[in-house]
Structures are given as C-alpha cells and as structure tokens.
Amino acid sequence: MKELGVPLRDYLDKFPNKKYLHPNEQSLIELTLGDGIYEEVLGRLNALKNKVNSVGEEHASLCAKGIKRLEDFFKSEGKAVDDMLNIAKTLRAIPVVDLESPTLCLVGAPNVGKASLVRILSSRKPEICNYSFTTRGIRMGHIHLNYQHFQ
C-alpha cells in the first residue's frame, strides 16, 4: 500500500507543524481556518496515512491478488485510457477562441495571398505553399493594435 501511504506521507510533510511557524503565520492560519482546524485536519490525515499503512501490512497477500485483478482489468479495458489520452491530445490542438475579443476571419480564393497577409499582420506563421488548398484546419493568430486585441 506504499502507492497510497507514501504520497499521503509526502503530502503531509509539506504542511509544517504550526508550533514551528512564526507567530504571525500561526495567527493567520487560526483567523483564516478557525482555531484548531489546521491541527485537526493534519491529525486526521496522519491517522488516515497510518491506517493505510496498517491495512497494507496486514493484507499484503490480498493486495497482490487485487493488483493482479486490476492488471487483468487494464489488459482487457486499458485501451480506453489510451483512447482518452488521444482525445485529450486532439482537443488540446483545437484553437481556443476568446468569445469576448473581436474576431477577424480571412477567407478567399486559393493563391491570393491570405497566408502572406496573416504572416505580416499577426503572430501566426502559416505555411505558404505553391499549390491550392493549403488550409488543413483553423489557424489562429493575434493582432494587437492601439491597445486592442484581435484574434
């Protein structure tokens, strides 16, 4: 159960004992959270860590069986995780449009210089080719003009 116990311990170690803090920091914690809340939550978290470690020690063989079952689940259904990672990657590639900012759209016939104009006017550096239909998706650029932002 070290997979749970160690992160809990590491997380708990990031919170200092209040008695080692400067009196100003102690007062700030008490006024923000309430008297004794900080120590109570740290104590509960420490108790949870101790219980996790205890259960891990007592049930190590059962944990091995449980881990084996989890491995079997991931072997049969793990493709869903890979699929979700691919979906996340695809979604991150979609340009984010600020709906509050003015948006300019540049459209026109092939080979008339749209990409060259975008390259000159905005932060976007589009691909310029000698063939038609170089647009393969939405390309966002940004223009700052007279303290106003356009996309």
Automatic annotation (TrEMBL):
SUPFAM superfamilies: P-loop containing nucleoside triphosphate hydrolases. GO terms for molecular function: GTP binding. Residues 2-98 form the NOG1 N-terminal helical domain. InterPro entries: GTP-bd, NOG1_N, P-loop_NTPase. Residues 104-149 form the G domain. Pfam families: MMR_HSR1 (PF01926), NOG1_N (PF17835). This is OBG-type G domain-containing protein. It comes from Papaver nudicaule (Iceland poppy).
